[in-house]
Amino acid sequence: MTVINDMKNQDTKSEFPVQKTEEEWKRSLTPAQYHVLREKGTERAFTGELAATKEKGTYVCAGCGNPLFGSDTKFESGTGWPSFWAPLSGDSVGTEQDRGFLMNRTEVHCSRCGGHLGHVFDDGPEPTGQRYCMNSAAMKLKKNGDR
Description:
Elements: E1 3-4, H1 22-28, H2 31-39, E2 42-43, E3 57-61, E4 67-70, E5 74-75, E6 83-84, E7 93-98, E8 105-110, E9 116-121, E10 131-134, E11 139-143
Antiparallel strand pairs: 1-2, 3-4, 3-11, 5-6, 6-10, 7-8, 8-9, 9-10
């Protein structure tokens, strides 16, 4: 998988239940996961392993295992990133304004560890009209039937 630099993460946010030092994060994540989740990096389009999968299950945070999205809300957006029209619950993810790269976007992060997941846009399908455009490296797919 190829990742491109997006925006560097500021200090670890203390309001999240899962707290680790940067060294602990580096030991528990792959380099690509660390870059995306902790440094707010972005994968290149069409390089992430979860973009095209159609397997049923729950997408969880690669950093802490927090359930994020259900496969029943995943759709093909044509963007090259896994896209969902809604998170699993209102408590799964958080958002904040991202004004990096001279753009005004809404960043999506894991509500449990604060890891950067991607961005949400208002050009998705019904019923929400939202497109949660996520990085594969930020998630793992827990397939239905897996423990």
